[in-house]
C-alpha cells in the first residue's frame, strides 16, 4: 500500500498500477489498518514530513468564534423546537391567522362596532357568538405570549452569556483554536 502526500490518498499497486503518484511512500498493511481504524475514530490522516509517512492526527480545533456560533445555532434550534411545540396541534394556516385573530378580537372588545371579517367567519362556522370567540382568542393569545415570551427570554439570556464570553476575548483569541477554558465556559451555557 502507498500513501501520497500531494493527494492525501492511498494507492494499491494491484489497483492503480503505474498511476501511483511519484511522491507516494510505501506503508505496511498493519500501518494502513491502524490508520483506517484511527480515521474511523475521528482522527484525520496527514503526512508527517519528519517521519516520512502518513500518521493519524487529531482533528483541528475550531476557533472560539466558530464554537460560539455553533453554540448559538444550537440554542436557536432548541428555542424554535419549544416554540413549535406550543403550536404543534394546529395547522400552519391557522397559526398564520393568529395575529389577525388577536388584532380583530382586541379591536372588537374595545369597540363592538369594529370590522372583524375573520372573527365573523370563524364564529359563524363554529356556531358561537363573536363575544365568546373574541374572549377565547384573547385568552389563547395571552397564554401564547406568556409561554413564548419565557422561551424567547431564555434564548436571549443564553445569547447574552455567549456575548459576554465573546466580549471577554481578543480578536486573536476569537480566531485561534478554542482553549479548554473557553470551551468550559461554552459548556456551561445550556438550554
If you had to describe this structure to a student in words, what would you say it looks like?
It is a single chain. With 191 residues, the protein is mainly alpha-helical. It folds into two domains: 2-57, no CATH class; 64-187, no CATH class. The protein has eight helices and five strands, in the order E-E-H-E-H-E-E-H-H-H-H-H-H. The protein has helices at 13-16, 29-40, 64-86, 92-110, 117-126, 130-167, 171-175, 180-187, and strands spanning 2-4, 9-11, 25-26, 44-48, 53-57. The strands form two sheets. It has a three-stranded antiparallel sheet with strand order 2-1-3. Helix 3 (64-86) packs antiparallel against helix 6 and helix 5 packs across helix 6 (130-167).
Q: How helical, in percent, are the residues?
A: 55-70%
**How many individual helices?**
8
Could you say which structural class the secondary elements and strand pairing correspond to? Answer: mainly alpha
> Unreliable segments (pLDDT under 50, ≥5 consecutive)?
none
**Strand adjacency order, main sheet:** 2-1-3
What secondary-structure arrangement, pairings included, does this model have?
Blueprint: E1 2-4, E2 9-11, H1 13-16, E3 25-26, H2 29-40, E4 44-48, E5 53-57, H3 64-86, H4 92-110, H5 117-126, H6 130-167, H7 171-175, H8 180-187
Antiparallel strand pairs: 1-2, 1-3, 4-5
Helix pairs in contact: 3-6, 4-6, 5-6
For the structure shown, list the relevant keywords:
mainly alpha, 8 helices, three-stranded antiparallel beta sheet, 2 domains, 5 strands, 191 residues, two-stranded antiparallel ribbon
Amino acid at each position: 500500500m502507498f500513501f501520497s502526500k500531494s493527494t492525501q490518498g492511498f494507492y494499491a499497486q494491484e489497483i492503480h498500477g503505474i498511476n501511483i503518484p511519484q511522491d507516494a511512500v510505501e506503508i505496511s498493511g498493519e500501518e494502513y489498518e491502524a490508520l483506517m481504524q484511527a480515521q474511523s475514530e475521528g482522527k484525520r490522516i496527514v503526512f508527517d514530513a519528519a517521519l516520512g509517512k502518513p500518521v493519524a492526527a487529531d482533528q483541528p480545533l475550531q476557533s472560539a468564534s466558530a464554537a460560539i456560533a455553533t453554540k448559538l445555532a444550537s440554542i436557536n434550534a432548541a428555542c424554535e423546537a419549544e416554540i413549535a411545540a406550543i403550536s404543534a396541534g394546529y395547522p400552519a394556516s391557522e397559526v398564520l391567522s393568529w395575529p389577525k385573530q388577536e388584532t380583530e378580537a382586541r379591536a372588537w372588545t374595545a369597540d363592538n362596532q369594529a370590522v372583524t371579517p375573520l372573527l365573523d367567519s370563524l364564529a359563524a362556522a363554529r356556531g358561537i357568538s363573536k363575544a365568546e370567540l373574541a374572549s377565547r382568542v384573547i385568552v389563547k393569545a395571552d397564554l401564547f405570549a406568556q409561554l413564548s415570551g419565557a422561551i424567547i427570554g431564555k434564548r436571549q439570556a443564553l445569547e447574552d452569556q455567549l456575548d459576554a464570553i465573546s466580549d471577554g476575548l481578543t480578536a486573536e483569541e476569537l480566531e485561534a483554536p478554542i482553549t479548554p477554558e473557553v470551551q468550559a465556559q461554552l459548556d456551561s451555557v445550556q438550554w
